[in-house]
Structures are given as structure tokens and as C-alpha cells.
Amino acid sequence: MPIRFFVVFLMFALCLCAPKYTLASHTLNYFKTSTVTEESGDEVFRIEIGMSGKDVKYETIVKPYLKTRLAVRLKDTEPGKLDRIINVKNPLVNKIKVQEVGEKLTQIAVELNEDLTDNYKVYTMERDKRAKKPYRLVIDIKKPVKKQKATIEGIKGRAVVLDPGHGGSDSGAIGPSGARECDVALSVSLKVRDILTSNGASVRMTRETDKDVYGWNATAPQELRARVNVGNYAPETDIFVSVHCNAFASPTAHGMETYYFATSSKGKKLASLINEELAAAGGLTNRGVKTANFYVIKNSDKPATLLELAFITNPREEELLTDEDYQNKLAEAIVKGIARYFSE
Ligand SMILES: [Zn+2]
Questions:
Q1: Which is it for strands 136-142 and 85-87: parallel, antiparallel or unpaired?
Q2: Domains plus CATH for the chain?
Q3: CA 309 to ligand 1 center in whole angstroms
Q4: pLDDT at 18 over 60
């Protein structure tokens, strides 16, 4: 064999025997963070990671149990000379880690200060010669927009008296698991108060804590008179709303109902509108809008209603009545009914 051919053969053989090693298509070589204002006016924290080559394939991972970490895995990529841990001074992002998590598999892990799962965007950008930026992966993290609850129309400037039933020496009815009517009534009423006041109404409460309104161990007439007086003695009062839970000997009794005093057409309107809203939001059997001679609605100078939110003596309804989310639903429904009363 002529020596020339032998050399060529040798080189060929060497190539076959050499370990197969090829370079990754991408090596990270650029890093920049900035705060960018988008056309929509939203502020975005932008992470740009540049690399050699283009058309990088990547995968974005947010684990359901670790929603404060946004990981982007770049295939066929080596981390290059980028710092492995980059601390960031930003309210949204704490640090960024550059990790080799597999063969030619580089992960950019963005550690967020809060769950921003719905607020990020990952994409690539072409090389920008003028800005001296290479082909790059971009991670945009948007500041979450604090959803401001829409104002409820019709409430502003109105004066509402809220009367959480019972309290103090009188717990009201007690459920099979021990929930007390006075506590549920107070809790829901306080939620109603907060929504009303945040929408510009002024609210007076007959009680804001677990107490008798008239005094410890007052007689029923003293106690109820004291409650009605809160509304009657404040001439600006527009409406009086008393909040209760129903009770019955049989645990199967269930549902919601609202009351007004028979001769009060405005009371009827108020009771009807709150009834509609409670039925829609609470989903319980609607026992209807009824008349009754309950002291507080009979003796209120102002349009008044008494609400029986549900049966605290019914195990299922007792559970709902003590549930924070359910209480919020009921409170919102009561406020909607009140708003409709003033605007319809
Ligand atoms: Zn009651």
C-alpha cells in the first residue's frame, strides 16, 4: 500500500475509533435584565439570554407544587460562561439559576417572589446587530394587575343599619356541630358592612362584637328595642337589615327565606330583591319572601327586612353557614340586593 493511502486510511480509522463528541448547537453567551413598558402600559421584567446559533428548542416547566419557580429547559445547549447564580434586585424575581441538568440540556430557573404562573411569556428573538444582541431567549414576567373590584352602583351615600341577630347572653340557635347563630350573623354582617363601606355607604351596626345591644341579660323587648333604636334614632338611615339563621326541631328543615312587615311596601321590595340575590348566590331552597310581625321589622321607622340565611339546625346548611367562602357569597348577594333596592 503506498504510504499516501496508508495515512488516509489511518486517519479514517482514527476518526471511527475516536469518542463521538460533538459540540452543542448553542452556547450561552449573553445575559441582560431590564424593565420594559409594553404598549398596553403594563410593566414587564425582561430576562434576555443570548446564545450562539439559532432556532433553539426549549420547554417551559412550572411544577404545580412549586409555582414560584419558572424553569426553561434549552435543548442542545451548554451554559457557557454565564454565572450559575444571578441575584436579581426586582420585586418579582429573586434570582436566576443557570444549570446543566442533562447532556447538552441547560435549564434557566427563575425564582419568583410570588406565584406568577399566569404572568409570564417565553419566546426567542433574532439577533440584533445594531443593539449588539445575539439570537436570544426572552422571558418576560409581568407584574400582576391587582384586580380592583368594580364599584357597586347605587350604594354610595346611602345609610344602612345592619343588625346581626342575637349575641352576648343570647347565642341564638345552635347547630348540630355547635355553630352559633349569633356568630354566623355577626360574621356575615361584618362582611356586608365592609363591602357596603368600600362602595361609599355609611353603615351603623347594632353590634360589632359578641354582646347584648341593650345590656347583659336584657329582656327581649329591651334588647329588640335597643336594636331598632339604632336605626330609628339616626334620621339619615335609609334601610334596616337584620341577619339571622333559621332553626327547627327536625334537622331536615332547610332553605333560605326573607321577611318584611306586611304594611311596608318598601320593606317588601327590599326583602324581595335580597331574596332573589341570596337564592341565586347561595343555591339553597328558596322558601320565599314572607311577612311576619318580628319586632325589629315591625317597629323600624325605615324600610326593613329580616333575613334567615339558612337552617343552622340542618347539618349541611350549618357547614355552609360556617364556611368563609360561603359567607362571602352571601354577603355579596345581600349587598347586591341592597344596591338594586336603591337603584331600581
Ligand atoms: Zn335568630
A1: unpaired
A2: 26-142 (2.60.40.3500), 159-343 (3.40.630.40)
A3: 10
A4: no
